[in-house]
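1st attempt posting a full record on here, be nice pls
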Amino acid sequence: MEKKYKLLKTNKKTFGDKTLFQIKALVDFSNAKKGEKGGYIEKESNLAHSGDAWVSGDALVYGDALVSGDAWVSGNARIFGDARISGNAWVYGDAWVSGNARIFGDARISGDAWVSGDARVYGNARVSIRADLKTNCDFELPRILINKPEKLKQLAEFLKKLEV
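the predicted structure (as tokens):
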């Protein structure tokens, strides 16, 4: 398989006890052009070489996290733990995704949102502002924008009722 990016060993950041390396596109693809510098990853297993997945801006991906498919992580987003970002999902802004969280489909995680634990966000779901999803949840919220704390609270109350 042809590599679509390389780690720039001279451009690195330390985040906690991790050393992350800036990436540079080696070929043109939909989310980056050849020579374009991207965000920071700890190792090549954090970003798939297949598909159009990309990490840009000051985004960090580390641990056993993986960005694949056509997913895009940008801004100041942090992806770590065993998190998986795939499909056409976007994680951006100051959002953090960690633990065993899975973000896929056309889902969008943004703002100061935190998604962790065993959460699954997919379909056309949108999670933004100061959302904090830490429960074991698996849901699809087609075309619902959670952009205010009271909406998130209503969602959390609804999800609590679903627990068996």
